[in-house]
Design goal:
mainly beta, eight-stranded antiparallel barrel, two-stranded antiparallel ribbon, 3 helices, 12 strands
Length: 251
Amino acid sequence: MNKVIKYLILVLFLSGTYSINISAQSCGFGCLGLSGIYGGYTVQNYDAKNLTDFVKSQLSDDIESPDYGQGTGFKVGANIFRAKFDGFFISAKGFYQFLEENYQVEVNTQFVDNEKYEFSSNYFGFGLDFGFDIVNLISLKLVEGGLTFHDAEFRVTTTLKDDAVSINETSLKYTNDKLKIGYYVGTGLIIHLIQDYVSIEGTAFYSIYDINNLSRETISGSVAGLLPQDQKTISSGGFGATVQLNIGFPF
């Protein structure tokens, strides 16, 4: 996660530097429309069958196992620029996406009360989009595509019973050792609430990526994999959707 945060800081720094250069050239809303920031919410599907099978293997047959495959979370980013030419526009952006999918299972055995399975798959990325105005207040984002860099974490927390009265927790955390590169392509609509200053943007997209077997360092210093060797925690991406609020800044 520290690697992702460092990359995010770099993205925001470069975005700010580029915006300052634009301002110095007197090229604000007049030719580079909606430079600014945005925040929104995303629902994203992915193939995490291996992760589902792992959790199922940890539980007895009479307990319903979680079914991993859809993450949700907040998205923040910066529209570096949105240039307009005779009703058409092209945008460049950088963003960070927080995704998580968590479950708690009631075990209620002699020694275990419950278990929590918490999976987060976060990424930062760069994107370009191209579209045109349908009417004065609505624009069609014909196509958006971009490059993404994924990080992931899986935490298993077991709540233990001590003499059936007091409770304590043990936790294991699995992470990936390096960022994974992915891609996405999508389309959407932009509704302009205040032209060039405030808009709502909806995007449907398909993501292409995978995440290797997560692992943790043991007490002895060796590395233990979450899944059997050569299995992926996420085998492939899938469809998703984001709704976001854009805030523009004039120069």
